[in-house]
């Protein structure tokens, strides 16, 4: 797939997008990267239907930006990380991120997690990557709502995996919403309270981390290797079996 040329019709583009979609969980920021191609495909097939026979008859020529997106997806295919199987004896780590346009969820596990070492120096094994674009009313959400969404989504959709985990968050305001044991603030909006209620049913430790973009970029470009120092702040721990009680 990494050697195929740029598509010349909607059928070829449709086939490529559908094929790489099978591997989306092993690629970071997949949705954001493939979005220009998805928009191109949607526009090309508007009012024509999505059957392969019809799509193959719709000629198209990718713009420079769409070619960059096509090449970026193939690059992610080449560097995609092999997913590991969850282990009961490992520490689960949840990393999330959001921009104005999309969100990212990454779940890793660390066997023999060293509490005295920074998170970026742990030996992470990738379990899952998910990403998506904000759509409709979501585009008008506040920054804190967009940052909170992937955390709530992870806890709602990945409950089979996140039985106990460390949550790394780079948005300080979210700490007051999702820190275990914190009282809800009067000004906290309804949506955040609903999400906090979902997350409150889990056993987790929330940790503020500076520069999560650099952390994940380093971890993905040089998997399992030490990365530059990164300041973290331990906020609070929800006591539970197998978890430290120190704050």
Automatic annotation (TrEMBL):
**Which Pfam families does this one have?**
RT_RNaseH
Alphabetized, the UniProt keywords read: Aspartyl protease, Endonuclease, Hydrolase, Nuclease, Nucleotidyltransferase, Protease, RNA-directed DNA polymerase, Transferase
Question: Known InterPro entries for this protein?
Answer: DNA/RNA_pol_sf, Rev_trsase/Diguanyl_cyclase, RT_RNaseH, Viral_Replic_Matur_Polypro
Lipid metabolism: is it a keyword of this entry?
A: no
Q: Ranges for the Reverse transcriptase RNase H-like domain?
A: 89-202
Q: Record keywords: Membrane included? A: no
Q: Which GO terms describe its biological process?
A: proteolysis
Specify the domain of life of the species encoding this protein: Eukaryota
**Record-level Gene Ontology MF annotations:** aspartic-type endopeptidase activity; endonuclease activity; RNA-directed DNA polymerase activity
What protein is this chain from?
Answer: Reverse transcriptase RNase H-like domain-containing protein
Organism of derivation: Aphanomyces astaci
């Amino acid at each position: 797939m990494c050697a195929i040329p740029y598509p010349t019709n909607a059928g070829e583009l449709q086939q490529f997008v559908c094929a790489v979609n099978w591997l989306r969980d092993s690629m970071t920021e997949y949705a954001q990267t493939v979005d220009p191609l998805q928009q191109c495909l949607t526009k090309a097939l508007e009012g024509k239907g999505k059957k392969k026979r019809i799509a193959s008859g719709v000629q198209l020529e990718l713009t420079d930006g769409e070619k960059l997106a096509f090449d970026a997806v193939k690059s992610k295919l080449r560097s995609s990380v092999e997913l590991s199987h969850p282990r009961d004896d490992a520490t689960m780590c949840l990393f999330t991120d959001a921009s104005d346009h999309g969100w990212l969820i990454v779940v890793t596990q660390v066997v023999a997690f060293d509490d005295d070492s920074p998170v970026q120096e742990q030996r992470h094994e990738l379990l899952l990557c998910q990403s998506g674009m904000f759509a409709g009313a979501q585009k008008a959400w506040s920054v804190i709502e967009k940052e909170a969404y992937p955390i709530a989504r992870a806890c709602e959709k990945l409950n089979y995996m996140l039985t106990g985990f460390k949550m790394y968050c780079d948005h300080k305001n979210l700490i007051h919403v999702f820190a275990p044991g914190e009282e809800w603030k009067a000004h906290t909006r309804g949506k955040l309270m609903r999400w906090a209620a979902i997350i409150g049913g889990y056993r987790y430790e929330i940790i503020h981390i500076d520069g999560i973009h650099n952390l994940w970029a380093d971890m993905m470009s040089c998997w399992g290797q030490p990365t530059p120092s990164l300041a973290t702040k331990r906020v609070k721990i929800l006591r539970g079996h197998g978890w430290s009680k120190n704050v």
